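ugh ok so i messed up the first submission bc i forgot one of the chains. this is the corrected input, ALL of the components this time, i swear. 619 residues overall. if the numbers dont match what u have on ur side tell me asap before i send this to the collaborators (the ones from the other lab, u know who)
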Amino acid sequence: MTWFRKEQFTVLKAPQLKDRIPDGLWYKCDNCLNILYIKDFMQNLKVCPRCNFHARLNADERIAMVVDEGTFQEIDTNVLPTDSLKFVDSKPYCERLETAKQKANMTEAIKTGFAEINGYKVVIGVMDFAFIGGSMGSVVGEKVTRVFETALDKKLPVTMVCTSGGARMQEAILSLMQMAKTSIAVARLSEARLPYISVLTNPTTAGVMASFASLGDVIVAELNALIGFAGPRVIQQTINQILPKGFQRSEFVLEHGFLDIIIHRRDLKKVLTNLLSYFCLDQNTRLKGKAGKGADVIEVI
Amino acid sequence: MALSSFDFEKPVVELEQKIENLQAKESTNPEVRKELEGLEEQLEETKKQIYGNLTPWQRVQLARHIARPHSLDYISLLFSDWMELHGDRTFADDPAVVCGFAHFDGAPLAVIGQQKGKDTKENLARNFAMMHPEGYRKALRIMKLADKFALPIVVLIDTPGAYPGIGAEERGQAEAIARNIKEMALLRVPIIVIIIGEGASGGALGVGLGNVVLMLENAWYCVISPEGCASILWRDRAMAPQSADALKLTARDLIELKVVDEVIPEPLGGAHRNPEEAAKNIRVALQKHLAILTKKTPKQLQADRFAKYRAMGVVIEN
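and heres the new structure output, hopefully the right one now
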């Protein structure tokens, strides 16, 4: 619901400074505003080496980082959004969809498919915040549901890498119903005793957090990600108080018992591999005898 | 009793006042009687004209009417031997939702009702029916009891949303809602959901997964309130009437979108004008659906729920 909410980290930009930085060489950290050599930044998986701020990854970057090279086989690429309610606010929804497609270079806010993680076969979904704030409409709901159904059918574990501002308002009640659809899909996988690992990245809130993202057997979060139900601005308006520092950040959420583990991005693949190695013993998901070892390989994007 | 009214009801209120004034005179004068009759006819016409053509935004206002019957009103009108049970056994009792058991036509069932107050004082105590995580957990606890003893569940939805506050976040509002949806999907008993007033977003859905979803004529159900949507997409809360139009949140819209199975008619002008009649209409719908659902096996009930929500959403598939 709150996908356009201002990031807490976008403190005072200095455009005049940025203008003087030649494209493609330098990057200014959104958090500490330090100027970084872009190669260092990229090699550090888009994590600021100075302040550890985890900048956003797009779906392709995330997939490259998490799955074994060349193993991602995308599915359901033909499931596309439509403006079935003819929703018009300040702009028609169909125009917003077009803009989002151009901007994110995606057909929707998620990519799904088969992949291997250090040899473990999984069905994976990776969300992309650049597409209308990673919001969940009918297509995201459908593709997430199919991830779980495919996994159920093939007896594979599921990994979802989440980032979303919530449900997509322009699809109104249909987007709310995706919360039910996806949660039921998780329930069915769970009944079949197949593992589901949910990875929360900055930000994961509202409708997505109040459905499949919260329902992982294990829930992993990146450092300092914004995680919650209501957006901080809404809460601030409701209670008329300044929110405590670190409110709704990964560390806060873990402290209150709603996360299993917080990780630095470079450890994500290793953590996923370990989790899969615990839960996938009796399933035919191990390939080429690679499994059983925690992976040390972190591919550089 | 004078009910507080909205601007769009002005012609009705004016006529009602005129009639009241004439009646107060207790005149036997045939001319006055004639005038009275004429006014009453006019009132009926005006009511039909206004209430028959309500805009979505006007319905939203009716759904929020302070005198509108709330969950406990319907519970006392529909059920007997109602007993409220408290607490989530973990943290607290959430007064924004009432949970318990009762008899309907002599048979026991579980009832979950989001509860607004009749006045500001009670609304503060009930937190305007905005539930905290402990509310969702209490509801789930009672629903699981119903599941254990094979009793149907009736859920009355009436909330402006799940509470957005610090405590709610600390205690896992998102987790509580997500878990409720998942667990409700797996229950082996009939779940009948009735949206009686406001059905806002995850706050409603967190207790709102049903085998059938029924909705009172002037209730609304959506992913966000019209004001919330207006302030986000139009950047202006005053655009709420426009956003109410765009959001397709009325009962009739939701029938078309196959999210709601049946609209329960309200007395002309809204349920608050005749709560007994509204309750009677709910009773009829409840009887009908309970009769159908109680014949189904636990497996079938589960499978029906899976299939119902699996079909929701509109995508293009090339």
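quick check: Strands of chain B lie at 80-85, 97-104, 107-114, 153-159, 191-200, 212-216, 220-222, 262-264, 316-317. that seems consistent at least. Chain B touches chain A through 55 residues (CB under 8 Å).
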